[in-house]
Amino acid sequence: MGQYKYVTNRTIPNKAGEESKGFVRARVPNDSDTAEVAYKCPECEHQESTKVPFTRPFNIRCSKCGTLMKLPKLKGKKK
Ligand SMILES: [Zn+2]
User: Fold this and answer.
1) Rounded distance, CA 25 to CA 51, Å?
2) Phi, psi torsion values for 40, nearest 5 degrees
3) What's the 25 CA to ligand 1 centre distance in angstroms?
4) What is the pLDDT of residue 71?
5) Closest to 4 in 3D by CA, of 23, 45, 32
6) Which DSSP state fits 66?
7) For 23-52, how does the pLDDT look when each residue is reduced to its tens digit (9 = 90+)?
8) Which of 5, 36, 62, 69 could bridge 41 with an S-S bond, Cβ 3.0-4.6 Å?
9) Which DSSP symbol is given to 17?
10) Residue 37 near residue 49, CB atoms below 8 Å
11) Element holding 7 (H helix, E strand)
12) pLDDT classification of 73: cutoffs 50, 70, 90
């Protein structure tokens, strides 16, 4: 349990510059290329837990309003 090759937990600013309006939490198990994601959209405040393919650049799009939440500066290397 608890073996993840990528974990992130960060706040996402909205377009008005309010830094704590949204967040994205994501983790990718070592044996998977599917990210387990929980987010709160900084624009419409929609909250959702979902699973998405783990690709780079790794961005999450709000399923309600379409806002793209960018997660730059990933750590870790591709094999
Ligand atoms: Zn939204």
Assistant:
1) 11
2) -130, 120
3) 15
4) 87
5) 32
6) -
7) 999 999 999 999 999 999 999 999 999 999
8) 62
9) -
10) yes
11) strand 4-12
12) low
Q: How confident is the model at residue 19 (pLDDT cuts 50, 70, 90)?
A: confident
pLDDT at 74 > cutoff 60: no
Task: State in Å: Cα 68 to ligand 1 middle.
Answer: 8
Q: Which domains does the chain have, with CATH numbers?
A: 4-58 (2.20.25)
CB distance 5 to 29 below 8 Å:
yes
* Short-list 22, 27, 2, 28, CA closest to 10: 22
The 10s digit of each residue's pLDDT in 56-67 is 889 999 999 999
Amino acid present at 1: M
